[in-house]
Design goal:
Elements lengths: L10 E4 L21 E3 L13 H15 L7 E5 L1 H9 L7 E5 L10 H8 L10 H12 L6 H11 L4 H12 L9 E7 L14 E3 L6 H4 L1 H12 L1
Parallel strand pairs: 1-2, 1-3, 3-4, 4-5, 5-6
Length: about 230
């Protein structure tokens, strides 16, 4: 696929845990994609104890029926959405994959993923705890750097039910991808607190950027995308 043609093909955006399509609002206006579609999470596909591939087994028929003849889908995945996107690419190996604040293979996974498989202590934390405390902790710790970002995250997180949150935590910990199925553009922040930079092997780094850089450093992320695809 010629690099420039990616802008004419459908781009499916997969948000991260506790977020929805609004997380892309700062970034997408800076990019020339002509056909952007969002894959917000659906509660009926989120089955606690089941993983990313189970979720995609329910999503794929819907996605495939939406595509017109000759359309080549491409994907942008943020955080948990990136994990899903790496698995989704196995069904569309000719697709281009844009990963932001996430990982692409098992080699980049944080130690807590391995620990969670053996000792899933996260099950002891009520999912509903995330509604109030996660945005506050993220703001206080500087992961979300401004008040507007904090308020946006709170609104998005409220669209997630406890069932969805339980599924997402387990799906992330048990995600596995030995190698990319196709072309990958990986952009990562040097101060990412979820996926440690020490293990990440991105195409491009963003200086002084945390896990929330798709909002706080949207211009830099957009510059890397346009530099890569032309």
């Amino acid at each position: 696929m010629p690099k420039s043609s990616i802008y004419q093909q459908p781009l499916y955006c997969l948000p991260g845990l506790g977020t929805d399509h609004r997380i892309f609002e700062q970034l997408l206006p800076l990019l020339p994609f002509e056909d952007v579609r969002f894959l917000d999470y659906k509660e009926e596909y989120c089955r606690p104890g089941k993983g990313c591939d189970d979720y995609l087994a329910h999503l794929l028929p819907e996605l495939q029926s939406e595509l017109k003849a000759g359309e080549q889908p491409n994907f942008m995945g943020l955080s948990l959405g990136g994990l899903l996107a790496t698995r989704l690419q196995h069904h569309f190996p000719d697709s281009q994959l844009i990963l932001v604040s996430t990982i692409k293979t098992n080699d980049e996974a944080p130690f807590i993923f391995s620990l969670g498989k053996i000792l899933p202590l996260y099950w002891l934390v009520p999912a509903i705890f995330s509604w109030e405390m996660v945005p506050r902790i993220s703001y206080w710790a500087g992961f979300i750097s401004d008040k507007s970002g904090y308020e946006l995250y709170k609104k998005m997180l409220r669209t997630w039910t406890p069932k969805m949150l339980r599924w997402a935590r387990d799906a992330a910990v048990h995600w596995s991808n030995s190698s990319p199925a196709g072309q990958v553009l990986h952009i990562h922040g040097k101060k990412d607190h979820v996926f440690p930079p020490s293990r990440a092997q991105p195409t491009y780094w963003v200086e002084d950027a945390t896990h929330y850089m798709i909002v706080s450093h949207a211009k830099e992320v957009a510059q890397h995308i346009k530099a890569h695809f032309g």
